[in-house]
Amino acid sequence: MNYDFDRPVNRRGTCSLKWDVPENELPMWVADMDFETAPEIKKAVQKRAEHGVFGYTVVPDEWYQAVQSWWDKRHGFHIEKEWLIFSTGVVPAISSIVRKLTTAGEKVVLLTPVYNIFFNSVVNNGRFVTECPLQYEEGDYRIDFQELEKELSDPQTSMLIFCNPHNPVGKIWSRETMEKIGGLCAKYHVLVVSDEIHCDLTDPGTEYVPFASVSDACRENSITCIAPTKSFNLAGLQTAAVFVPDKTLRYKVWRGLNTDEVAEPNVFAVTAAVAAWTKGGPWLDGLREYLAGNKRAATEHMLRIRGAELVPSEATYLLWIDCRSLTDHAEELSEHIRKKTGLYLCAGTEYGKAGEGFLRMNIACPRTTVMEGLRRLEAGIETMRQSRF
């Protein structure tokens, strides 16, 4: 079946966080897509809506089966039913886990630049963020294991929040890298929380490795957060899952999610997730091909933009753009581009100190929109160049 990802969808006037901007602005910042979700999901949600009664909802066996089957077939990893806990979202789950499994005043390690809301989940709960900056060399990000071990060995460090694949740099972590992380965290009694929400948005021909699949140390000392929301554009339906192989850890996570009241689905959450994971595969494959085309178009266009280089990526629909040859002040640059052209991007500093001089751009939209965004990016950077040089 062919899916029309070129068709624009007008999201203005729909209470969209992304599109609640002035008419002249083009928002390419927050990570949600401008595509309609898979037809199979729309049909399932519409059928449920037609029932007309929207009462309290339980998590049925078919939800567990859908998760298990998807990870078995798609990622070659078996998730036991008892490992799984429903959650209203990955961020609520991470915040709850931080509250339940660390103590106020302890440190949580983040491999930066990384998803900015991780910082909120830590700081808002009275814990401290320890940034372990990734090293960017020759177009690739890697972990400084000497620095990581130093931070993990601190007795005040109790948790590492890991991003796999990595947002915003689009990195798919290798099995060897994760095995090393898992070993160090086990050695220093540091719990790993792995956010794998972008796992289905890998480039065609590439595959991610679930952290829990890597080794015994990784499996028994980790909590993994997953969801269909990024892959199928369902964030507004608040549907996610957590899987925890270790029984003792699992009870603590289950207790925390229930105490925080984020373990009960709304009336559409299960319906949409089950449809995504049982019927959405062909649509997702089409989406991945389309996004790869957007990346190719962006890569070609970026060669024309002086003062900006595209960081190579293997996953996500986010471009990570290196503007350090022009400026180290990412926030100033993003504000300048928005003021001059209306293009709304994320400043790299939102993702930690290691994001200084970078911009993040969401290209999960029709190609005409991508090209318009790139034209505005080029114009904004050129006016900044002219003012500087």
Can you describe what's shown?
The chain has 389 residues and is of the alpha/beta class. It has helices spanning 39-51, 61-75, 90-101, 117-123, 145-152, 175-187, 216-220, 229-232, 247-259, 269-279, 281-302, 330-341, 367-388, and strands at 26-27, 84-87, 107-112, 128-133, 135-137, 140-142, 157-163, 191-195, 222-226, 240-243, 309-310, 318-322, 343-344, 346-347, 358-362. The chain folds into two domains: 26-39 and 281-388, Aspartate Aminotransferase, domain 1, CATH 3.90.1150; 52-278, 3-Layer(aba) Sandwich (Aspartate Aminotransferase, domain 2). A seven-stranded mixed beta sheet has the order 2-10-9-8-7-3-4, with helices on both faces. The protein has a four-stranded antiparallel beta sheet with strand order 11-12-15-14, with helices on one face. α11 packs parallel to α13 (367-388). The protein starts with 25 loop residues before the first strand and ends with a helix. The model has no long low-confidence stretch (mean pLDDT 97).
